[in-house]
Amino acid sequence: MTTVGDIYGWIDGFAPFRLAMDFDNAGLLAGDGDARVQRTLLALDITPDVVREAAESGAQLLVSHHPVIFQPLRSLTPQTAPYLLAQYGIAAICAHTNLDVAAGGVNRCLAERLGLTDVRALKAYRDTGLAEALMGETGEELAPEGFARRVGGDLGCDGLFYADGGRPVTTVGLCSGAGADCLPDAAEKGCQAFVTGEAKHHELIAAANLGVTLVAAGHYDTEEVVIRPLLGLLRKNFPDVEFARARSSHRPARYLQISGGNADGS
């Protein structure tokens, strides 16, 4: 029968945990590697609701992208995800930045979802030389707003915001999640647009000044793209284990449609 360690080992071969960035906390973060697994849930985040769903469904393992333990724990209190994992005896494997840079990882899945062709490295991570960000071609020339709308449609976003680079878009850079620090690299490599999950005020201003349409499509929406492909690979490699996406996994952001406001704040 398959164990937690078997699944960890397969993920380690696909997206080696040793390649996680230095600030990260990826790996087997809860549970026993020798524990047997019959059912596994996948989620972008291990929240209390996701742990409860796993317990109710009889799952022995959760596989997530974001680490369930990121900062050092100073306390362990009821109704938090780490406490519930221990209470229910559920293991947790978290593949974070190692999955971002993997050949079939998050950024590659994002490029495929956006329909980009000729996908290649945009920026290499200093410690490993692996692609921290990617770039590719749209296959057609799009106005900045039209490109932003296409991104929203491809990702199924509830909403997004963007900075207009003022140029038609054919070459696109991307980095899932919080990747706007790669914007200068995208401009240097000739990208007319850059897609990431979130962007700060000064990064939007910088994008417009650089002539790059910066699309902030949501941290969740730019990373959740990896869950279903990963689910398919795990099902193929472990046919004796039942794998499912956690139904309670959802984007934390909610968008309001507001009309009648003054853009200049007056």
Plain-language structure description:
The protein has 266 residues and is an alpha/beta fold. Helix content is 32%, strand content 22%. It has ten helices and eleven strands. It has a six-stranded mixed sheet, sandwiched between helices. Strand 2 (39-43), helix 2 (48-57) and strand 3 form a beta-alpha-beta unit. Helix 2 runs parallel beside helix 3.
Features:
six-stranded mixed beta sheet; five-stranded mixed beta sheet; 266 residues; alpha/beta; 10 helices
Task: Give me the secondary-structure topology.
Elements: H1 4-14, E1 27-30, E2 39-43, H2 48-57, E3 61-64, H3 81-88, E4 91-94, H4 97-100, H5 106-113, E5 117-124, E6 131-142, H6 144-155, E7 161-163, E8 169-174, H7 183-188, E9 193-196, H8 201-210, E10 213-216, H9 219-223, H10 227-237, E11 242-245
Parallel strand pairs: 2-3, 2-11, 3-4, 8-9, 9-10
Antiparallel strand pairs: 1-4, 5-6, 6-8, 7-10
% residues in beta strands:
15-25%
Which structural class do the helices and strands define? alpha/beta
Spell the H/E element sequence. Answer: HEEHEHEHHEEHEEHEHEHHE
Report the principal-axis shape.
globular
Please give the number of β-strands. Answer: 11
Main β sheet profile: 6 strands, mixed
**Residue share in helices?**
25-40%
Radius of gyration (CA) equals 20 Å
Strand order across the largest sheet: 5-6-8-9-10-7
Low-confidence stretches: none
Q: What's the total helix number?
A: 10
- Termini distance? 66 Å
Mean pLDDT: 95
